[in-house]
Amino acid sequence: MPSTTVPPLTDTEVRALREDFPLLTGTEVMGAPLVYLDSGATAQKPLAVLDAEREFYLHRNAAVHRGAHTLAVEATDAYEEARRVVAGFVGAGERELVWTSNATEGLNLIAYAFSNATAGRGGQAAERFRLRPGDEIVTTEAEHHANLIPWQELAARTGASLRWIPVDGTGQLDHEAAARVIGERTKVVAFTHVSNVTGALTDVPALVELARETGALTVLDACQSVPHLPVDLPGLGVDLAVFSGHKMLGPTGIGALWGRTELLDAMPPFLTGGSMITRVTMEEAEYLPAPARFEAGTQRIAQTVALAEAVRYLRAVGMERVAAHEHALGQRLAEGIADLEGVRLIGPPPGADRVGLAAVDVAGVHAHDVGQVLDAAGVAVRVGHHCAQPLHRALGLTATTRASTYLYTTAEDVDRFLAELAGVRSYFGVAG
């Protein structure tokens, strides 16, 4: 949670930061200044990040962990230095961070590694990852599809059963039910750190404790927490976690899987080929320790360098201050929405902890129509089910309209969103 002793960013500081983001300065939509409130989907990129990727291609472009020439050594050094920087950002060691294309790939990597272990790969060291009929995989009703479908598929491949922790009437996890769902047959508990629909924070220690009592492994989706909160993944007590670069000022095409070293070294690889092996014959292959064992093929080199620059940018601002800023914006959103007639706030009520994100249901108006009205006023938001259909279904909804903030969002941005949202029902003639 944001520290109460750390002040949020001031409007002056935020406006100064915005100068680093070309797309946020001078861009208009339908003649209106852009208000970008879709950072939960993807964040804008500062010039430092754009320049870092370009600089790599201009001066250090070469394959990593292959050539012995000077340029290849420099590229490899940049690649591994990026790993060190990003790993440190989440409290991890270098060997604990695996590069992926995105968080979705990271979750699939874990699920397929468990599947390969179940098929007998990995020997005795992989025994704890094996699933059998009667075993249970637990996720939650609040998950993004990326942290649900891979587990559905793993259950289908292994004969294990899939169970889930339900949500309450506000879309938040029912922690009392969690104690009933997680039991002696549970082998994996996969859950989100922050909901991409409600903005609610999960009680991670509580779920970790329940999982440890049964010996289950925990997998954390940290996509909506690592960009917005100070996060120490080892300190949270989870076993494995994923996050995406493009949500934290970095480029697309890069994400990370974090895991405890002893687990990563024991997990059978998912993708195989060059760079991740020690010895190959025509009959078999032996694999490198983590993280290399999960990084087959040509690497996402320039993207890692740019993501490291994004981390440096966030560190320079200060994650405690970023969190405090977004906490304040989240409260401003929740309080403003609560005052609007015919508009339902999804998730924690005003005053409760949330990140700077809020989804709404406007009575009598489909979310896509809400989004179009807002877009015509220059306000960019996300509409739809946000890759969380089960959560919406549990709330009796098919779609919502979501506003999400970041360190470059001003209080004025939030107020413009609220002002335009207030007029949606009357625009469609359903007010009153």
UniProtKB/TrEMBL annotation:
GO BP term, pick one: cysteine metabolic process
Top-level lineage group: Bacteria
Entry-linked Pfam families: Aminotran_5
Cofactor(s) essential for the protein: pyridoxal 5'-phosphate
Keyword Transferase attached: yes
Leading EC class: transferase
Keyword tags: Pyridoxal phosphate, Transferase
InterPro entries: Aminotrans_V_dom (IPR000192), Aminotrans_V_PyrdxlP_BS (IPR020578), Cys_dSase_SufS (IPR010970), PyrdxlP-dep_Trfase (IPR015424), PyrdxlP-dep_Trfase_major (IPR015421), PyrdxlP-dep_Trfase_small (IPR015422)
Family as reported in the entry's similarity comment: Belongs to the class-V pyridoxal-phosphate-dependent aminotransferase family. Csd subfamily.
Protein name from the UniProt record: Cysteine desulfurase
Native source organism of the sequence: Kocuria flava
Taxonomy of the source species: Bacteria, Bacillati, Actinomycetota, Actinomycetes, Micrococcales
Underlying gene: sufS
